[in-house]
Amino acid sequence: MFQKFNLKNTMRFSAFLMLALIIFGTVSGADAQTRRRRPVIRRAAAARPRAALYSVAANTRIRVRMEETIDSKTARIGDRFETRTVEPVYSTNGSVVIPEGSTIVGRVDTVTAARKGGKPGTIDVTFVQVKLPNGTTRAINGSLSDLDSKDAKSNNEGTASGDRMGHRKPIFIGGGAAGGAVIGAIAGGGKGALIGAIIGGVGGAITENQTKGENAEVKSGTEFGIVLNQAISMPKYSEQ
Predict the structure, then answer these.
(1) φ, ψ of residue 10 in degrees (nearest 5)
(2) What is the pLDDT of residues 43-68, one digit of tens each?
(3) Which of 96, 131, 174, 228 has its Cβ near the most Cβ atoms within 10 Å?
(4) CA 160, 164, 170, 175 torsion-angle sign
(5) Bridge-partner residues for 66, per DSSP?
(6) What are the residues facing 129 on neighbouring strands?
């Protein structure tokens, strides 16, 4: 009788254990599915505050120095070249936005080699981008200009010089004792005769028609000005 009772209890315990395992497995599976289906909440990164922008007015002149040499004999339309600022550029409220040592990229728009008849070579350029030492870049619209300072003008053997004339587009023009370049202008913004071109080397029995003009060569180290045709907005300069 004891064996019969023990067997019965064992069977009941086994049945209870199996039922418990089934229930536990079902609950665990449901719980796992619930955990898998639970949406993942991603926290958005905090937006960085925008830096305040400061305006540099149109017609601001920027003093730069050539970092390479270009000349009207070898230059091609679309060529890029680099200049470097030699003094800081300030916003309208007096903050430094372009420090000394920044790079300003120029582009050759048109170029004409020197020709017979005493016609000098010319290079027409625009300035399209500024790169700050901290990596900040901005597109600009700038034109060639003199340095707008009487004591900044030279004899064409160092600093490019010349007068910016109203309604005339300044360009580099061949000439000078070293066969370099000066800043001249094309009357009417590209139409008409060259203004301020210097023709050298004519002498003795050599006639003008037999003499080839000087190519415009803007050497590395030459200083000149860039004038902004449009205002730009930039943050106050920071090294970081």
Answers:
(1) -65, -40
(2) 766 666 677 899 999 999 999 999 99
(3) 174
(4) negative
(5) 83
(6) 105, 139
Amino acid at 185: A
pLDDT tens by residue, 131-167: 999 999 999 999 998 764 443 333 333 333 333 344 5
- Rounded Cα distance, 141 and 126, in Å: 7
Structure tokens at 19: 């039922």
Tokens of 168: 């005339």
Instruction: Report the C-alpha gap between 168 and 209 in whole angstroms.
Output: 27
Locate tokens 């007015």: which residue? 57
- The total of other beta-carbon atoms located within 10 Å of residue 192's CB is 11
Pairwise CA distance, residues 116 & 211, whole Å:
6
Those residues with Cβ within 8 angstroms of residue 8's Cβ, 6 or more apart along the chain or in another chain: none
| Tokens standing for residue 183 | 């800043």
Residue 2 pLDDT more than 50?
Answer: no
The two three-digit tokens of residue 85, written as one number: 């600022």
- pTM equals 0.67
Q: CA 165, CA 184: separation in Å to the nearest integer?
A: 9
